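Fresh eyes needed here. I'd like your take on this protein's tokenised backbone:
***
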Amino acid sequence: MKERVITNPLLSRTVVKRGLLISVLGILLTGPSVHFAGSSADIVGDMTVEQLFSYHPSFQSQYNEYRVDDGIDLKDIVDIKVVILFGTWCHDSNREVPRMLSILNKVGLAFKDISLISLDINKQEPKGREKKLNLRNTPTFVIFRKENEIGRIIERPEKSLEEDLMNIINR
């Protein structure tokens, strides 16, 4: 028995028009957006700590829950700059970036000395700094003193973020 498909050209056009109308309304109602890479909260490129915490509450939760190891003396950390390359989609970044921000905050490093660079799923960003900094894995914390790189922590610390950071600073 042959199946008959009945098509109604009027009905098809109505469905397409409704779908188009719903799409246009959706765009109009959501308003302007930040530079998004994929999901609605993936900013790519420079990001402030406030933006990170606002768009990704899990980062703020991790930040609030982390307890900095007071047994590590980090007072010599004041003359450095830190570049953090990370992905909001990366589980290692989700764990390590809030911890590093908590450590840097505790020792009083100013936000102007911390550069957060969010990467897309291909580990790239619009200014190409991932290439200039020879990024391999996320997150990568690049530590500078007087414009010279003095060390980096890649993906996860060898011992702890505090210990690894202290070892880099004391080189």
